[in-house]
Write a structure and sequence with these properties.
30% of the residues lie in helices and 18% in strands. It is α/β, with parallel strands linked by helices. The protein has a single domain, classed as Metal-dependent hydrolases (TIM Barrel). Helix 4 packs parallel to helix 5. The two termini are 18 Å apart.
Length: 277
């Protein structure tokens, strides 16, 4: 799954993320070993994350100044033979969407900002409690409704990440997932994303999380393209060096099958369109 990769990996985590202990040097080595000479680190910051008593270290706090300073030094160390961009993944909730606008504006130094949904009504779909007492369909719909709220209220990001992350943890995963049930929500989500000049990502993390397709589902990707969506990045969501660039051949096939001619890279939050070869 890792052979023939060439896209810059625009969704990666290091030990600055609460759920990761990967060393940035090992991440860069894994990238170069896969033929990738540019990546963007996007460590987690989830403002007001509901910390669990049984996992007190999982607070998803990020000291942005320390993080940026450290990664800037690493960037200098590897330049010019390796291109390291510095980004951040902001977990967005209805209670933090407005505050995150101010936060993002206060950090113009970042090359790239991913908005993503991890916490819905105080719960992460990663934990079984999110699905208790409701069907997968209801749980998925609530997750997608939360994304719609977020894109209506949070505007200072570049792409929205792993749009159907919730599928990784559903009781029946993709077997109970009919995208057509949620077309109405995704049409509204994409109206905001496209009008606001934002994009989405192909996130291949799902391929090593039990799904047979990258995020988002191909039907969602098709809808995004049909509605005029053009800005798209590719990320492995790797929390371990092994997964850097994982499944990028599958991502390339999907992009070409759905009529995409370009992918995007970012510098100081400005997209650059690159031809898919």
């Amino acid at each position: 799954m890792k052979q023939g990769t060439f896209f810059p990996d625009y969704h990666l985590h290091t030990s600055f993320s609460s759920d990761c202990d990967a060393n940035i040097h090992n991440i860069i080595k894994a990238a170069t070993d896969s033929g990738i000479n540019s990546i963007c680190v996007t460590d987690h910051y989830d403002m007001d994350f509901p910390v669990r008593d049984d996992e007190p270290d999982m607070d998803f706090y990020l000291d942005a100044d320390c993080y940026y300073k450290y990664m800037s030094e690493i960037r200098e160390q590897y330049s010019p033979s390796f291109d390291l961009k510095i980004g951040i993944e902001l977990g967005v909730m209805d209670t933090t969407a407005d505050k995150l606008n101010d936060y993002a504006l206060s950090h113009p130094e970042f090359d790239f900002i991913i908005a993503s949904s991890h916490i819905i009504d105080g719960l992460d779909p990663y934990y079984p409690e999110y699905f208790e007492g409701r069907s997968d369909e209801a749980a998925y719909r609530r997750y997608f409704e939360s994304i719609l709220y977020n894109v209506e209220h949070f505007k200072n990001y570049n792409v929205y990440g792993h749009l159907d992350y919730v599928l990784r943890y559903g009781t029946h995963k993709k077997e109970s997932y009919d995208m057509s049930i949620y077309t109405d929500i995704f049409e509204e989500i994409f109206k905001h994303i496209i009008y606001d000049g934002k994009g989405i990502e192909i996130n291949t993390g799902s391929l090593y999380k039990g799904l047979s397709f990258p995020h988002p589902h191909p039907d969602i990707l098709k809808l995004y393209k049909e509605m005029g969506g053009e800005i798209i990045t590719i990320g492995s969501d790797a929390h371990k060096p092994y997964y850097v660039g994982y499944g990028f051949d599958a991502a390339r096939r999907l992009l070409l099958e759905h009529g995409f001619k370009y992918y995007c890279t970012f510098e100081k939050q400005k997209p650059k369109f690159v031809v898919i070869e």
